[in-house]
Amino acid sequence: MKKVLSLALILVLGVVLAACGNKDSAGGSDDKKIVVGASPAPHAEILEEAKPILKDEGYDLEIKTINDYTTPNKLLDAGELDANFFQHTPYLDKEKEDKGYKIESAGNVHLEPMAVYSQKYDSLKDLPDNAEIFVSNNPAEQGRFLKFFVDEGLIKIKDGVKIQDATFDDIVENKKNIKFNDNQAAEFLPKTYQNNEGDAVIINSNFAIDNGLKPLEDSIAVEDESSPFANILAVQEGHKDDQKFQDLLKAVQSQEVRHYIEDEFDGAVIPAK
Length: 273
Fold this sequence. Notes:
The structure is a single chain. The strands form 3 sheets. This protein has a 6-stranded mixed beta sheet with strand order 2-1-3-12-4-13, with helices on both faces. Strands 9-6-10-5-11 form a 5-stranded mixed beta sheet. Helix 2 packs across helix 9 (243-252). Strand 1 (33-38), helix 2 and strand 2 (60-65) form a beta-alpha-beta unit. It is an alpha/beta fold and 273 residues long. It has 10 helices and 13 strands. The radius of gyration is 24 Å and the shape is globular.
């Protein structure tokens, strides 16, 4: 009887140890797999270029394309993604303030110069009085929209307000009574432009590229490299220094990927400094 009990105990102990061994093995495997949610263009395309670099380091990079601005942070905060790549810091800050997300930036990757498109006018100064400008319903980018018109001297904002923090409520002078229509999500703005709605449309470059627009060629105004809206790699708070995320950041900031961005997008996407 004692022999039977001893044998049973040995078998149970063996199963427990094997389970622990498998858990450790799975954990190690998970450390080498990175699941990133990204906008289709250019974010997912940039990540594809980083894949071979990460593979050489032993990582399996899985890219999940997401074509909106609300889902990626929701999934990352819930732990269904390891990281996401679609947003800039002002947008992330607003999301955290509004929704309580525990997410942080691991580092800058690139800038997508936002641009103004019009089928009716050749420049911002040509816009008529009471011009209607279609913009996204993203409140974190209101200052970004306004910067085009501030730079042209068409609008002034309150003294002491940084342009990246400015909102439509901060307008103190509007020479042409320009009106901003912000009733639509960013992904629908290319269709708005194609339908020739309003006098001009401000479109994020990723959605412009997706719809065959070339920001440097087709727009009437485009952001320059001084923009504070560089796109970031975002992770859960407390994890930006994890080795796998540092390796991921190093890959997307590598010279190989920088050269790809410069060659592939012809100024519509610019590597971050």
